[in-house]
Amino acid sequence: MLMHSDSIINEYVSLAKSMKGDAKAEKDTVHIVVPKETLVNTASKLFNEYNCDFRTCVGVDERPLNGYFSVTYIFTDNKNGLYILVKTYTEPQNPVIPSIVKTVPGADWCEMETRDLLGIEFADRDQYRLVLPSGWPEEIHPLRKDIPYNYRPPIRSVSEKITPSTELGVIPIGPYHPALHEPEYFELYVEGERVVDVKYRGFHVHRGIEKLAETRMTYQQVNFLAERICGICGFEHSTCYALAVEKAAKIDVPERAQYIRSIVLEVERIHSHLLWLGVAFHVVGYDTGFMHMWRVREKIMYLAELLTGSRKTYGLNLVGGVRKDINEEKKQKTLETLKETEKDFKKLVEVAISVPQVKKRLTGTGILPREDAVKLSVEGPVARASGVNKDARRDQPYAAYKYASFKIPVYTEGDNLARALVRVDEVLESISIIEQLLDRIPRGPIKLEDFEIPEGKTGVQVVEAPRGGDIHFVITGHGKPYRWRVRAPTYSNIPALKIMLKDQPLADAPLTIASIDPCFSCTDRVLVVRENSKTEWLKLAPGVQI
Amino acid sequence: MNNVNTLHYTIYSAIGVIIGLTLPVILDGVERKIKAILQSRIGPPITQTLYDLIKLVNKEIKPIHTSPFILLYLLSFIATSIASIYMVETYVYTLESIYITLGLSLLAVSLTSLTLTPLLVPNPFSYAGGMREVILALINESAFILSTTLYAAITNNLAQLKSATTPSMLLSITTAALTMFISGYALTGRVPFDMAEAEPELASGVLVEFSGSLLAAYMYCNLLKRLLVNLIIVSVTVTPLIGESAYSLAAVYALTIVLWVIFAITAVILGRSRIDLAPRTLTKTYILLLALSITGLLVHAYA
Amino acid sequence: MSIVKKAIKPVEVLVIAGKTKRVTVKYPYQEPILSPEFRGSIEINPEKCIGCGACVNACPPNALEMIESQDKKTLRYYVGRCIFCWRCIDVCPVGAIKGTRNFELATNDPLDLYTYIVHSKAECSSCGNKVETVKMRKYIMQKSPITENYVNKCPDCRKKSFINAISTRKVGFHGE
Known about the structure:
The complex is a heterotrimer of chains A (546), B (303) and C (176).
Chain A: H1 6-18, E1 22-26, E2 29-33, H2 39-49, E3 53-62, H3 63-66, E4 68-77, E5 82-90, E6 96-98, H4 108-118, E7 121-123, E8 169-173, E9 185-191, E10 194-201, H5 209-215, H6 219-227, H7 234-249, H8 255-284, H9 287-308, E11 317-318, E12 321-322, H10 328-353, H11 356-362, H12 370-375, H13 380-384, H14 392-395, H15 416-440, E13 458-465, E14 468-476, E15 481-487, H16 489-493, H17 497-501, E16 504-505, H18 509-515, H19 520-523, E17 530-531, E18 535-536
Parallel strand pairs in A: 2-5, 6-7
Antiparallel strand pairs in A: 1-2, 3-4, 4-5, 8-9, 9-10, 10-16, 11-12, 13-14, 14-15, 17-18
Chain B: H1 6-38, H2 48-57, H3 67-94, H4 97-116, H5 124-156, H6 167-187, H7 212-242, H8 246-268, H9 278-302
Chain C: H1 2-8, H2 12-19, E1 42-44, H3 54-58, E2 64-68, E3 72-78, H4 87-91, E4 97-99, E5 114-123, E6 130-133, H5 134-143, H6 148-151, H7 155-171
Antiparallel strand pairs in C: 1-4, 2-3, 3-5, 5-6
């Protein structure tokens, strides 16, 4: 599906020119620059007429380069495998950009994050503080180039309290809870046993990763940082970063390395889905399914350790290739493990879904209708369970996926059971993909030794993580990235929870929240200071204290 | 009643009560071990529940201003349970149905005080969880007491009610027994009916304010409730078959342990139900089975 | 019949449990299950290390740091920050770092977590400054055809002599 026919590209170029802007096409990316005034029209045309998928927006402080701030909106044309970047500039003294949230509702959070971190205001919408804590001073915008990464602003301690309500019961979930896996804060407004409304406040563990990469790491070191964005889907983050930098620098990675990347990506997908199924069973009370599913997963973890050297945070990727090879013995072991896993997994899923309580509680709960799924640009299994057929492995093929044939499971009911079944099918497809790739892997080197990364180039890459499309945006700089933006899939899926949790029984709330497979450590990437009537400073990634 | 030494019987009953008070803790450990084996893991040692209770007793209680009343309710549960166990044991020796009636009434009283304990805690989540427990208790206790009385009445008066092998009598006995087992299982508060906490992720249920030795007492009372229910089921089912003697008590306790293990295995293979699903299913099941039982009895009596 | 089969399906989990015995391991009384490729902490060989600092450049979390002082260069390895990625092993030019399978590193004394490798610095023959280590000079001399005379200077003096040498060859001697 890699036909970048010139006619499509010419259409985008003429669209840009009609909006008084300019366009440049490079392989599979179309860079469009438009003035502020025509931004909303361009976005609306792309989203509605050309049916492009909106991914995220990136604010960049380009004042050292050309004296302006810029905001880039990233769309993807899934049918033609193109990335459409719409960039617009604004003056540094009072940066204001018209908001596109009325035509593209999925742009809500990324605009507010840009406002918090860079200070760019958005016109024609209500603005609120999203990512920074409530006591943070208004004038300090962390991602601006003149703020050092280890600067500590004075913070007013403000305590956030649970919303009082006299008509409805308010049930808080989190942010600290002995049974929760990650910190998040949901307020469920209940009437009796029905959930009526939901309020989400996240970003409790924003770690400042983007700022770190721009200030004190080198290109190769950022791979390891990217891997630690998430504990479950880390490898796809580091692969996405490496692919984005390689695209920006126009580096040709050896084929064998791409095959190895795809194989390990699929191993990661299998382990992530098995983990999710276990957690879903646990949340429904079926602990036996949980234990057995994780027992099956243990074999995959051992396989990952055999292939890469570590059960998680593989440390395999470098810009220009991978660090470890797959020899004949490992290949045999992999095929054996996959065969056993497939048999065990199929049997277990058959038994587990037949338990009456599991079936009853998964069916018909947490429904997300198709129109809402499209409007909010949800990702991954959440989208595929609501009838939206999108998958970055087929639409924007990367690594070695163009050499394997696989099906994309799509269900239309949109309830929790559909999301579970999508993941079950994906596990079986992943096993088939790995077997195909291992069969056809070519010989050759696994790493490129000598290459140069020019400055000022832009690279965008979408990778299909287990939770959906993960997008990395890199602008290259001197020895380290000038701007790095990560938009993890859960970022787009959480706003859909408001719709899914309405009118559901309370006992199903954890199940519905779990069914989007939330990865809050992927979602929050900024720092927060805990407020407890005295400020507590958190130690960030090793060596850096803020 | 045999004059064979009321003293012997009193001693046996006292020993039985002591066994009845210590058995639940060990059996809970056994249940966790069985659960672990069925989940392919090693699991905690059998004495783990004992260690847990000891550890909790050594911790401080976060004070609730109604703590003395809560403790009173829990102690009254233990007292009435002891009395109920004693009644059941006397039934095992004498097979006189008055004792089983007394035992069941004492069970009703004790279960009421245990079910109402969460409503004493001044916390909205406790009330919510307590109400869920009340719904389940109303349904399950009524079914349990009805079916046990029915079953005991039928089996104790078999001699008077002609022969037992007509199909309607068999239907009556089996449906009554089935209801007894199902409602007994539901009363023990195992999966799929442990929904008082809604979900462990929500912290919005019964245990939200208990801590320290209060929590230990509450957990112990729940275990004792399981033993009491098992004891009643087994004595009602088994004693008419083996006759009354001093050794039937030992047999009854042994079979109680077996029944506990069977319930444990059943809990492992099921998932948790929801507060709107379970009561509906249970009510429909009980009404159906009890109706069949009474119909069978009437058909047999007047046919 | 199929309704009965469907109802009995959940019980098959007992069959599954019967086939797979207990899979958990009583760690630490039993050995944990590690694959042959497992990456643990590293061990630096002080004899081989030349103090070049390539590992310090490559280390993502700054577990390896170079501490400079007037006449010593110290390489400090802090296990607490190490992510066991083994990048330092990849980039070391002399192969002085070895990977072990050691991951049980808990200790009561935080000072146990630091390893120091101290190198003495070599003196520049013209200006007297100390910049690189003695061992690094020996390594360069082994690897590259440079006279001992040239390598005995610090980088600044070396640059100056080189520029002087070129200008002498172009313009001739003047002054002296």
